[in-house]
Amino acid sequence: MTLQRIFGIVLLGLFSIMAIVPLFSPNEYAVKRDIVINKPKNEVFEYVKMLKNQDQFSEWVQKDPDMKKSFEGSDGTVGFVSKWESQKEEVGKGEQEIIAIEEGKRIDYELRFIEPSQSKDHSYIITEKVGEGNTKVTWGFEGKISYPMNGTLLFMDIEEDLGESFQKGLEQLKVILENKA
User: Fold this and answer.
1) 3-class SS at 37?
2) Domain at 169, CATH number
3) What is the pLDDT of residue 17?
4) Maximum distance among all Cα pairs of the chain, rounded to whole angstroms
5) Does a structural domain hold residue 46?
6) Which end of the chain is more exposed for a tag (fewer CB within 10 A), N or C?
7) For 43-90, what is each residue's pLDDT tens digit?
8) Residue 56: is it exposed, middle or buried by C-beta count within 10 angstroms (0-12/13-18/19+)?
C-alpha cells in the first residue's frame, strides 16, 4: 500500500467519524443555577424584571465594560430589547428580548447571538418565596446546536462553563440586593 493510499484511508475514516458521532450526540442543553437572597420576593422580582439591571450582575457584561449597548422599548415589559456589541470575541454581538413575564414569578428572554456565531436561545429568571423575607432566584438557559456541530457537546462542559457564569452573576445579584437599603 502506498503512503498516499494510507493517508486517504485515514482521512476518510476521520471524516466518517466526524459525520457519524454527531448523529448520536445530544443537540440540546440546559443550564440553571439558583441562590437564596435575603429580601422579599416582590423586591427581588421588581429588580430582576428590569433587563438593564443585568448590567450590574451579569458576568458577560462585566467582561467588557466598554461594549456598545442600545435599548428599544420600555424596560421591564414584554418586547423590551437590549442590544450589545463588543470587540471581545467571548462577548460578541447580539440582543436579548423580554418575551414573557409572569408577574412576580418569572421572566423569559430570547437571546439572539449574531457574532461570533449565530444562534437563538432561551433564558429565564424565576423567583420563589422561601420563608419569610427570603427569595430563591433561579437563572436558566436552554439552547440547541444543530448537526454536525452538536458533536462538540461531547467535548464541552456547557453545564459547568455557563453554570459558573450564572452562579457568579447570582452571587453578585445577592450582594447588590442584600446591601440595598
Assistant:
1) strand
2) 3.30.530.20
3) 57
4) 78
5) yes
6) C
7) 999 999 999 999 899 887 888 888 899 999 999 999 999 999 988 877
8) middle
- Number of structural domains (the chain) is 1
Instruction: Strands of the chain (E only): list them.
Output: 28-37, 68-72, 81-85, 93-102, 106-115, 119-129, 135-144
- Which of 70-84, 110-124, 151-165 ranks highest by mean pLDDT? 70-84
**pTM for the structure as a whole:** 0.78
Structural domain harbouring 136 = 27-178
Give domain status of residue 158, yes or no. Answer: yes
Mean pLDDT in residue range 2-23:
65
- Residue 69 Rama label (left phi>0; alpha psi -120 to 50; beta): beta
How far apart CA 122 and CA 143 sit, in angstroms, is 6
The residue to which cell 438557559 is assigned:
141
Q: Count of CB atoms within 10 A of residue 134's CB?
A: 15
Helix (H) or strand (E) holding 160: helix 158-178
Backbone angles phi, psi at 124, to 5 degrees: -155, 160
* Predicted local confidence at residue 69, as pLDDT: 92
pLDDT at 155: 55
Domain contains 8: no
Q: Answer whether residue 16 is part of any domain.
A: no
Does residue 94 contact residue 119 with C-beta atoms inside 8 Å? no
